Amino acid sequence: RASLPERGLLLLMVLVFLEGSVLPLGAASSPDVTHQANSDNHIVKEAGHNFTKKPFPVLSLDYHHIQAPFEISLWVLLASLMKLGFHLIPRLSGIVPESCLLIVVGLLVGGLIKLAGEQVPPVLDSRLFFLCLLPPIILDAGYFLPIRPFMENLGTILMFAVVGTLWNAFFVGGLLYAVCQIQPGNPSILHQLELLPCLLFGSIISAVDPVAVLAVFEEIHINELLHILVFGESLLNDAVTVVLYHLFEEYAGVGSVTVMDVFLGIISFLVVAVGGVLVGAIYGILAAFTSRFTSHTRVIEPLFVFVYSYMAYLSAEMFHLSGIMSLIACGAVMRPYVEANISHKSHTTIKYFLKMWSSVSETLIFIFLGVATVEGPHNWNWTFVTVTVILCLVARVIGVVGLTYVINKFRIVKLTTKDQFIVAYGGLRGAIAFSLGFLLNKDHFPLRDMFLTAIITVIFFTVFVQGMTIKPLVELLAVKKKQEAKRSINEEIHTQFLDHLLTGIEDICGHYGHHHWKDKLNRFNKKYVKKCLIAGERSKEPQLIAFYHKMEMKQAIELVESGGGVKLPSAMPSAVSMQNIQPKKLPPAKPAERALSNLPKGREEEIRKILRSNLQRTRQRLRSYNRHTLLADPYEDGLGDLLIKKQKMIELERKIKDMNNYLTVPAAPPDSPTMCRARLASDPQAYSMKPEPDSVPTIQVDLASPQSPDSVNLMDEFRRAEQQHEEDQGLMMKPPSGESGPKKPGEEDGSREHKLMRCLSDPGPSADEDEDEPFLP
């Protein structure tokens, strides 16, 4: 049951409602008393200079003097009261979206004006819509745009915005032209339609409207992925709509489009999109640079944000660029630098003023849409309107399903069937399509009224039918909703850690993905851009520290607003309050006691020795590395011994070479008794002495000499054995034999070789440690 204040508010709404529809009519029908009196006085003066003094007017009425601002204020007041009144009835606002109720209010206002016999004013004029009502909504969306999910899904958004809008425009326009040419024997008004006007109509009706999407999706609280996909598409398809609109409007009168025109249209799309983004980015940088010097005049800080943004929109519209993309770029570029320069009060002012301005504009757009529907003129054609609604639905479904099939091949997080349904069902049309249709010249497009009627029908169908049923469908399909979780410093730390980790993985793999380029952009921003656009020490402040300061300020404000926390002391605190505030004096500290007082000194020293040895081994084992230097650590114990052995072998080989030069003994002559006995013993029958000529000098080599082919080279044998050992054991090096085995004469002293040669990659304990033994005995 409504309380007394709620009844009073509803009564005020009714009075304003009636005043908005009756007062302008009465004022318009009443004569201008002041103007009539002045004309009468002028006539009397000309007649005979017989001036008759009239009494001074105590009260006079001159409505035409304040008509425009008064009616604007009246519309804004009506919209605000209607928006306030809908939320006083929770059952109604929970069933019907706010946009539907506002359109109904517009229909009622337009109907009352029509019943009064007056002409309905053209409230939804295209200049008023594009220059006054649309910019606040887009600026609010761009300034508070979630940059991270938007950039992570930018490829998917561009596919839906560019390819999807082109598909919808040509599918709807082409099939609509084909339907209009059916039954040539039965001539009708539809046979007058040509292909280019149909394509122009398809380009107008195919674009998703950001105002309608915002109005519906903010009420159903859909998850962030689906919201950014549909809303991002509605923002970025503006460039495609602008190019197609101007292209088909230009050549609709000519009747033909050449290949060169198509090529110029593609270039025009790039110019419109990229040019709009550049214009917005330039104005955003100018706004950030200007806010660098506003520390002494804080009161005008919000003004720069609004003025620079609006200038960006007007500059883009002046060159027929995408004004929506310009506003989005301007808001997204300026926000991080402006918020670092301005005060907290200025930030609060910008936030609430943008929300208020965009909310009022959105409310006025839907009310004006209802009024314009009553205004007309309409040209109803059942075939054209019905086929348009059906084709819009079919084209949207086919486009989303087909593009998602391609997109899912490149996405890590795939779009499910439920997600595709919500994206297709959330393609709402709104006042942008109506305003573009209203701009058409009736001389060039004689069926403009039929176009407007079909556009209004599609808008009403998407807003009322799809907008009212999408919330129950989300509940029925159990689609994941948005979780209202506050960002914490822990989440920010892990997010930055994962960003750095993924950047490092991409660098190791040699794949330059978006994390790589994002890291490059962040480094450039930190090194150059911040120093120019952010004043003071805030330019050198790390991102994590800045986020911590922001969260700390936010929590402090919430604590003060909620009335919680400790009561702050007064300016001149009393003795009692000072006792409560000041910390109590701690008792004098006792002399430090031993932490291990119960242990004997010997046991404590043993524990420290164990800890010292284990911690030292841990430092030796856990060494940093990267993919470029995956080599053995020269400080490992086993490798050090190996290097010592190798150095000794090199020294031994050098000594042997020196011995070959000086200690070579000549071999015995072949006819010596020793050689004769050796040959005779080996083969008595083959023994024969060959005469040796005296003129030929010979070099005789003893068998014991290193130069003999039968001699054994110690270094070669050692290397061959070492290679065979490595082939059998890999990188594992076994310790030398213990004391039980016999020692060879050429072997060094093994007292230093009892240390275990572990594998270089083994991080475990040494072999002489028992794994089951407790760490602290």
From TrEMBL:
<feature type="compositionally biased region" description="Basic and acidic residues">
    <location>
        <begin position="719"/>
        <end position="728"/>
    </location>
</feature>
<feature type="compositionally biased region" description="Acidic residues">
    <location>
        <begin position="767"/>
        <end position="777"/>
    </location>
</feature>
<keyword id="KW-1003">Cell membrane</keyword>
<feature type="transmembrane region" description="Helical">
    <location>
        <begin position="352"/>
        <end position="372"/>
    </location>
</feature>
<dbReference type="GO" id="GO:0016323">
    <property type="term" value="C:basolateral plasma membrane"/>
</dbReference>
<dbReference type="Pfam" id="PF16644">
    <property type="entry name" value="NEXCaM_BD"/>
</dbReference>
<keyword id="KW-1133">Transmembrane helix</keyword>
<feature type="transmembrane region" description="Helical">
    <location>
        <begin position="157"/>
        <end position="179"/>
    </location>
</feature>
<feature type="domain" description="Sodium/hydrogen exchanger regulatory region">
    <location>
        <begin position="571"/>
        <end position="675"/>
    </location>
</feature>
<dbReference type="GO" id="GO:0005516">
    <property type="term" value="F:calmodulin binding"/>
</dbReference>
<dbReference type="GO" id="GO:0015386">
    <property type="term" value="F:potassium:proton antiporter activity"/>
</dbReference>
<feature type="signal peptide">
    <location>
        <begin position="1"/>
        <end position="28"/>
    </location>
</feature>
<feature type="transmembrane region" description="Helical">
    <location>
        <begin position="96"/>
        <end position="116"/>
    </location>
</feature>
<keyword id="KW-0739">Sodium transport</keyword>
<dbReference type="InterPro" id="IPR001970">
    <property type="entry name" value="NHE-1-like"/>
</dbReference>
<feature type="region of interest" description="Disordered">
    <location>
        <begin position="719"/>
        <end position="777"/>
    </location>
</feature>
<feature type="transmembrane region" description="Helical">
    <location>
        <begin position="128"/>
        <end position="145"/>
    </location>
</feature>
<keyword id="KW-0732">Signal</keyword>
<keyword id="KW-0812">Transmembrane</keyword>
<keyword id="KW-0915">Sodium</keyword>
<dbReference type="InterPro" id="IPR032103">
    <property type="entry name" value="NHE_CaM-bd"/>
</dbReference>
<feature type="transmembrane region" description="Helical">
    <location>
        <begin position="451"/>
        <end position="474"/>
    </location>
</feature>
<keyword id="KW-0564">Palmitate</keyword>
<dbReference type="InterPro" id="IPR004709">
    <property type="entry name" value="NaH_exchanger"/>
</dbReference>
<dbReference type="InterPro" id="IPR006153">
    <property type="entry name" value="Cation/H_exchanger_TM"/>
</dbReference>
<comment type="similarity">
    <text>Belongs to the monovalent cation:proton antiporter 1 (CPA1) transporter (TC 2.A.36) family.</text>
</comment>
<dbReference type="GO" id="GO:0098719">
    <property type="term" value="P:sodium ion import across plasma membrane"/>
</dbReference>
<protein>
    <recommendedName>
        <fullName>Sodium/hydrogen exchanger</fullName>
    </recommendedName>
</protein>
<dbReference type="GO" id="GO:0015385">
    <property type="term" value="F:sodium:proton antiporter activity"/>
</dbReference>
<keyword id="KW-0832">Ubl conjugation</keyword>
<keyword id="KW-0813">Transport</keyword>
<keyword id="KW-0112">Calmodulin-binding</keyword>
<feature type="compositionally biased region" description="Basic and acidic residues">
    <location>
        <begin position="741"/>
        <end position="756"/>
    </location>
</feature>
<keyword id="KW-0406">Ion transport</keyword>
<dbReference type="Pfam" id="PF00999">
    <property type="entry name" value="Na_H_Exchanger"/>
</dbReference>
<keyword id="KW-0050">Antiport</keyword>
<keyword id="KW-0472">Membrane</keyword>
<dbReference type="GO" id="GO:0051453">
    <property type="term" value="P:regulation of intracellular pH"/>
</dbReference>
<feature type="domain" description="Cation/H+ exchanger transmembrane">
    <location>
        <begin position="77"/>
        <end position="475"/>
    </location>
</feature>
<feature type="transmembrane region" description="Helical">
    <location>
        <begin position="384"/>
        <end position="408"/>
    </location>
</feature>
<keyword id="KW-0597">Phosphoprotein</keyword>
<feature type="transmembrane region" description="Helical">
    <location>
        <begin position="420"/>
        <end position="439"/>
    </location>
</feature>
